[in-house]
Design goal:
By secondary structure, this protein is an alpha/beta fold. Strand 4 (189-191), helix 8 (205-210) and strand 5 form a beta-alpha-beta unit.
Length: 867
């Protein structure tokens, strides 16, 4: 049957049959079944193309950004609201909790993308390793709950959630998963663990796994005893695990999983029990995860995918509270600044709040200093104001975190109870001076952080005062550590509490309704310090009221961490815009003179990587294809022709390196700087800030590098486009670069071409002794040998229409010019060993031992790679 004779209705009807098949088999086997039942081959091809396009669309969505291993099969096209049971129920639960439609949509999109990056549960064998990067207290549990719901709806059977190392977090996670997954579909799930009990091996595991029709839920601590029991129990199930598609969610994946001599081998042993298993780590502090040696099979480097979750609407993160430094390519006016919510704990108070060492801890008695009193009084005032406003989280909590010494925690209880009693006594006695002191505090604080900035109204002091006595009477002082029995419990009704603790309050556990924090515990690692910031999260109806008391040094450290976080995410997203995979790029992490990035044991595979633009690829990816972009494109084309003309005059032209290219060596750097002052990257290309690029080149020139450049014009080796005069006697055929987009999709004015250059182009001025290197760092090493101090600038004359036919996921560029669209790639060399690239020092994973399949570049001799 000819394609033009096939109706859309025929395709849709067969597509419905195809989707039914994929509920019990892979898409590949579903196509076989269609053919076996006699479906017309032409229609089958259209059905498969439709499915590929839809699953690719989901996997390549810009939000949330992701990077994944090439060649992974696509299969998931999103939830089916008519047939699925778990996701629709979870959706209803989120709406009841008033998540907000914007945040619900974000959870839906991001969880769909994570599931799309897993393997089909009916595939015979698979072992997926991925990482999802979120924010501290930002809803990561909600995201992996959604992933579990959608995976369960598609056939995953066993779900193991590794929930930190403390009972409190394991219990909280179990309760949440039961409420959101099990309670709404009790017949669909069997709980192997419970709220009160970690994993206890059920008898007869073979019979246990032989049961059909239910998903199994285990929420277990990352504890050697628990994991050993789990591994032995799974081992006894034998062949019954062969058809048990399993999803392991590692919550707080940077804690205990990486470089731990006991936990790490046990986790690997658990994974090894399954022929069909997906492992997805979730963390807000992925520093240790991103420094793992990817070549070590027994470790947990996210070799298959990394997903960077967006910051949710209404979330209060590090940079919001502490501010941060400017990153490359940012406009100072767009820099998020910290709200005035941080209050100083003077250095001379610190010795009254925590012992200097373990020896002193044995007899240390904490004091109610001025800062403690001010923090507690604000907690009571803010909680009273919340009660007047109503709505939002019913709980109200204050955190006191000064040390991990449990004896010191206990030492705070009586002084805080005495402060509560004295405060009630002064209010009951009508102490007008004290009331005026509270009024002054309220007025000063609400002036420093206006309620109107958050869409709220300031609560009058008289109304706060009316609620104040009941707030203070309701306040419990709870000591929460691994020795205590009186733990935080938000399940029994509204809680008003001052929680004093250490490690159990600093990892994963959500402090509901956290208003005030007093924090003076100094630690030496990024991940540990950032995870202790329980004050990050959502503050519905009280976003103006949180306050944090800490030393100025700690506040400076958190500002640095805000910069590290933003820089790390920008680095991840930058690699996501190129043709990189988790095995070919290494995220860079800023160092600090007083802080380590993570523990020493987790840094053993890290390598020093001085940053700025050294070793980086900067390229045009976005183009304004509205009418307004016409003049912009004309200016860029003129800038390119001026550069080629100057290169032809002052550089050395190579003999033809390959068809439809021109290469000039030893071009003076000032011609490149003149070009960058004229050429304008689209504003969405964050690396392409002209001032920073020019400034960086100037700095490197002063150090004796980047004095000379290679300039190349890359044309189309196929005779399918018109030639364009690019100046300097260079005329080449235009390349094609189609934009991302699906058939029928309404496209924006900003075209995203995703990838401009190829590895082959990046070596155009080098001598190759074999095939083109397949990895970016291999090319950098080659450049270091042959052109250690020279930059490479590639000019791509792009055909304005760039129609590549029916290529899945691509649409014509359709640029508004009759001339040429100019794309640019700049490859900067790494600094010579021992020299500095910038004032900022970075660390990254060592990728030198990773074996990656080298791309077959023979096709590039006939075709334009990205057309």
């Amino acid at each position: 049957m000819a394609t033009d004779e096939i109706s859309d209705e025929q395709v849709e009807q067969l597509y419905e049959v195809f989707l039914q098949f994929t509920e019990s088999m892979t898409p590949h086997d579903a196509v076989k079944n269609l053919r076996m039942f006699g479906a017309d081959e032409s229609v089958v091809k259209l059905v498969r193309a439709k499915h590929d396009a839809e699953s690719l669309r989901i996997r390549e969505l810009d939000e949330p950004p992701s990077v994944f291993l090439n060649g992974r099969p696509t299969w998931y096209t999103g939830p089916d609201m008519d047939k699925d049971k778990n996701w629709p129920a979870l959706l209803g639960s989120m709406r009841k909790k008033d998540f907000g439609e914007e945040n619900i949509q974000s959870v839906d999109e991001s969880s769909t993308k994570v599931v799309a990056l897993l393997d089909h549960p009916k595939q015979d064998e698979f072992r997926t390793r991925g990482l999802v990067v979120g924010f501290v207290q930002s809803g990561k549990t909600t995201n992996f709950t959604a992933v579990m719901a959608k995976a369960a709806d598609r056939g995953y059977k066993l779900f193991i959630v590794l929930s930190g190392i403390h009972n409190s977090l394991r219990r909280q996670t179990q309760i949440r998963l039961v409420n959101d997954l099990v309670a709404s579909n009790p017949g669909q799930w069997h709980q192997v663990t419970s709220e009160t009990r970690d994993f206890v091996p059920p008898p007869n595991p073979k019979a246990f796994f032989a049961a059909q029709g239910q998903c199994l839920l285990l929420v277990v601590k990352k504890h050697p005893v628990v994991l050993r029991k789990l591994s032995e129990w799974l081992g006894a199930a034998g062949e019954y695990l062969d058809k048990c598609p399993t999803l392991i969610i590692d919550d707080e994946a940077d804690q205990s999983t990486v470089a731990t001599p006991k936990i790490n081998p046990l986790l690997y042993d658990v994974l090894n029990k399954f022929p069909q298993v997906g492992y997805v780590g979730y963390t807000a502090t992925p520093f240790a995860n991103l420094l793992i040696d990817p070549s070590v099979e027994e470790d947990f480097y996210p070799r298959d995918f990394i997903v960077n979750l967006p910051q949710p609407e209404g979330y209060h993160g590090t940079e919001v509270l502490f501010g941060r430094d400017l990153l490359a390519g940012e406009d100072p006016e767009d820099l998020p600044g910290g709200w005035d919510m941080i209050r100083e704990v003077p250095d001379d108070e610190v010795d009254d709040l925590k012992p200097k060492n373990k020896k002193e801890a044995a007899y240390f008695e904490p004091a109610i200093t001025h800062s403690v009193r001010a923090a507690v009084e604000w907690f009571w005032l803010a909680t009273a104001a919340r009660r007047v406003r109503g709505g939002g989280n019913p709980h109200s909590t204050m955190l006191v975190h000064t040390t991990t010494e449990t004896r010191v925690h206990e030492g705070f209880k009586e002084p805080l109870l005495n402060l509560r009693a004295r405060t009630l006594g002064r209010l009951d006695a009508g102490d007008t001076a004290f009331v005026e002191h509270l009024r002054s505090t309220w007025d000063q604080e609400t002036a420093r952080v206006p309620a109107s900035d958050f869409g709220e109204e300031k609560v009058p002091f008289e109304e706060v005062l009316d609620e104040l006595r009941s707030v203070i009477r309701d306040t419990r002082v709870i000591i929460d550590n691994y020795r205590s029995k009186d733990r935080l419990n938000y399940e029994a009704g509204p809680v008003t509490a001052i929680a004093v603790g250490g490690s159990t309050l600093s990892r994963g556990l959500t402090l509901e309704g956290l208003v005030t924090s007093l924090f003076v515990r100094a630690v030496s690692a990024y991940d540990t310090l950032l995870q202790m910031g329980r004050w990050f999260g959502y503050r519905n109806h009280y976003a103006d009221l949180p306050r944090i008391w800490m030393t100025d040094e700690l506040a400076g450290w958190f500002k640095h961490l805000a910069t590290v976080e933003a820089d790390m995410r920008q680095d991840i997203n930058r690699y996501m815009t190129s043709n990189e995979t988790p095995l070919t790029f290494a995220v860079r992490l800023r160092s600090h003179p007083k802080l380590s990035i993570t523990s020493k044991a987790k840094m053993t595979s890290a390598v020093l990587a001085h940053a700025a633009y050294g070793g980086q690829l900067v390229e045009s990816r976005y183009f304004d294809v509205s009418d307004a972009g016409r003049e912009w494109m004309a200016r860029n084309a003129a800038a390119a022709r001026a550069l080629v003309t100057a290169a032809a005059k002052d550089g050395v032209r190579y003999e033809e390196v390959r068809k439809q290219t021109a290469v000039f060596a030893d071009v003076p750097y000032d011609h490149v700087q003149d070009f960058l002052r004229s050429y304008e990257f689209h504003k969405e290309s964050s690396d392409g800030d002209r001032d920073r690029l020019v400034s960086y080149i100037t700095k490197r020139v002063r150090a004796g590098a980047l004095l000379r450049w290679s300039i190349a014009v890359i044309g189309n080796g196929r005779d399918e486009t018109e030639p364009r005069d690019m100046g300097g006697g260079v005329s080449v055929r235009m390349v094609k670069r189609a934009r991302l987009g699906q058939k029928g999709q309404i496209l924006s004015d900003v075209a995203d071409i995703k990838t401009l250059s190829s590895r082959r182009d990046e070596t155009i001025d080098l001598t190759l002794g074999g095939p083109v290197p397949g990895k970016h760092n291999e090319i950098l090493a080659l450049r270091q040998k042959q052109r250690p101090d020279q930059g490479l600038l590639l000019i791509y004359p792009i055909e304005p229409e760039s129609n590549t036919g029916d290529k899945v996921g691509r649409r014509p560029l359709a640029a508004p010019t009759d001339d040429v669209v100019v794309g640019v790639t700049i490859l900067f060399p790494e600094p010579r060993p021992g020299s500095r690239d910038s004032d900022v020092e970075y660390w990254s994973a060592d990728l030198s031992n990773v074996a990656v399949e080298v791309e077959d570049d023979s096709v590039l001799e006939q075709d334009d790679e990205s057309s």
